[in-house]
Amino acid sequence: MLTIFFLLMAIVFGLVFFTGGGKPEPKLGIDLQGGTRVTLTARTPDGSAPAKDQLDKAKQIIEQRVNGLGVGGSEVITDGNNLVITVPGTDGRQARSLGQTARLYVRPVETVKPATPQQPVTPPAGQTAAQAIAEAKAARQAPAGNAAANQAAVAKLTPQLDKTNCNTRASDPLAGNDDPSQYLVACSQDGTEVYLLAPQIIDGRDIGEASAGTNTQTGGAWVVNVGFKNKAKDFWPQYTAANTGKQTAFTLDSRVVSAPSINGAINTPTTEISGNFTQSTAKDLANVLKYGSLPLSFSSSDAETVSATLGLASLQAGLIAGAIGLIAVLLYALLYYRMLGFLTMLSLIVAGIMVYGIMVLLGRYIGFTLDLSGIAGLIIGIGMTADSFVVYFERIKDEMREGRSFRSAVPRGWVRARRTVWSGNAVSFIAAAAIYFLAIGEVRGFAFTLGLTTILDLVVVFLVTHPLVVLASRSTFLSKPSVNGLGAVTDVAKERRQAAAEAASLQKETV
Questions:
Q1: Which of 20, 57, 290, 447 has the CB geometry, 3.0–4.6 Å to 436, for a possible disulfide?
Q2: Count of C-beta atoms within a 10 Å radius of residue 427
Q3: pLDDT of amino acid 498
Q4: Which residues lie across from 88 on neighbouring strands?
Q5: In this predicted structure, what is the pLDDT of residue 292?
Q6: Reported pTM
């Protein structure tokens, strides 16, 4: 059992030190390390104030995106006509990506040219959002119709390819407000190319699933795999078969994410969107597509740094308080249980080490952030681990009071104790799970760490503490009552045996 536990520990810390990169430290929440705040300002096609239900729906979708990214400790609040997103750390890119409108369309490519380098354009002072959107639509969109109307639209917009400024992505008034039924002039994500696109053939609302992955055939480049549903599921294979050799663009909020050439009919369940993706950008795109488009388009402010609300001083105070409590428990265990108390100390130390490694991995791979409420859950959970040890040791003492030796009392005490340990931890885990799913905000962090340490409690008791006690019971030295702290129990057992013998002798004489 000990071998299994230390093998698990070796795997955890092998992942900590040799995978993922970065420092072997847990990610801290906003209340401990501060964060980055981005304000999203809602924009409607006519420039009017957004409806409350639309803003509430957008907030709900963004919160789903936050959960999908595993960005623990993030906050999304409504402030008038704005949504304010705060995420831990200093990376404002992630906060801005959560506010993408995520209106994805698949459009045939009419023409593509290298983007002409231009200086950023400053909108005229006093121009309303409605006016900016109307001007952008007039310059970059043209209605589709019959063949003659389509040719006229292409002829009208082709000169616009050389005039389109691809350096104004952040303030693009058309982002999220383009008309999918019209021709569109759009820039690539990196601003190096400008496209003339035909009206959409597939709406992003027909995406059934989206996930990030790598393509081994292109050297492990990151891609986004999307699966279509409804009519698009049957239309896409037919379209790709009929348009082999042509380019088709995937546009997200009026930007071309990818424009691959069709090499043949695509009959697989998923279609690959390639581009200049990194792991984080691919996951961001898959996340926003998975949870659907926002009912509003937003312009984002510059990312601003938010100072820690509680700070490292509070963290240090909490850790000191937890350390004092833990030391007090260990001293009591050493004085009361002696050798068994030493095993308690050893078990708690390895439990703490394992928790630390798991916290690092959770922060690295799912974005879990540790805040003060989470630390409180860890301290309570580790304290409950000590309770499990007490239950086990008291069961051993009960067996020894019946007259059994330390060696024979250990397996009998374990059989009785493990049922109690299972039951106690099951109740704690159910409570933690209920709090996690019903609560919001920082309380969920408390419930998560409490549930995690509850599971780890069982692992430590079964794989570490019990095997150590078994080994101690087989040692002649450690089995001595003066060493294992069970001398008083042994004396009680002797007194009971003597009393029983005297009672039996008296009864025999009476008879």
A1: 447
A2: 11
A3: 58
A4: 35
A5: 72
A6: 0.59
Distance between CA atoms of residues 151 and 232, nearest Å: 26
DSSP string covering 378-416: HHHHHHHHHHHHHHHHHHHHHHHHTT--HHHHHHHHHHH
Q: What is the pLDDT of residue 11?
A: 93
Angle at 62 between CA 280 and CA 33, to 5 degrees: 65
Query: Which tokens in the block code for residue 117?
Result: 């380098």
* Secondary structure (3-state) at 475: coil
**CA atoms of 82 and 85, how far apart (whole Å):** 10
3-state secondary structure of 201: coil
- Answer yes or no: are the C-beta atoms of 210 and 291 closer than 8 Å: no
Q: Is 43 helix (H, G, I), strand (E, B) or coil?
A: strand
d(CA 485, CA 337): 5
pLDDT of res. 312:
65
Q: At what angle do helices 372-401 and 487-510 cross, to 10 degrees?
A: 30
pLDDT of residue 488: 61
CA–CA dist 393, 353 (Å, integer) = 23
Q: Whole-angstrom Cα distance, residue 400 to residue 363?
A: 46
Contact 141, 276 (CB under 8 A): no
Name the packing angle between helices 442-460 and 2-18 (round to 10°). Answer: 140
Dihedral-angle region of residue 207 (phi above 0 means left; psi in -120 to 50 means alpha; beta otherwise): beta
Residue 507's pLDDT is 65
Residue type for position 212 = A
Which residue ranges in the chain fall short of pLDDT 70?
A: 21, 67-73, 89-97, 118-129, 168-171, 301-303, 306, 308-312, 314-315, 440-441, 484-511
Q: How far is CA 441 from CA 71, 75, 445, in A?
A: 12, 8, 8
Q: What per-residue confidence (pLDDT) applies to 309?
A: 62
Q: How far apart are CA 387 and CA 315, in angstroms?
A: 25
What is the distance between the alpha carbons of residues 502 and 509, in angstroms, rounded to a whole number?
Answer: 10
Q: What is the pLDDT of residue 505?
A: 62
* Rg (the chain; Cα; Å): 33
- Strand 82-88 to 141-143 pairing: unpaired
Q: Which residues contact 206 (CB under 8 A, 6 or more apart)?
A: 228, 229, 230, 231, 232, 233
* Predicted local distance difference test score (pLDDT) of residue 64: 76
Q: Are strands 255-258 and 141-143 parallel, antiparallel or unpaired?
A: unpaired
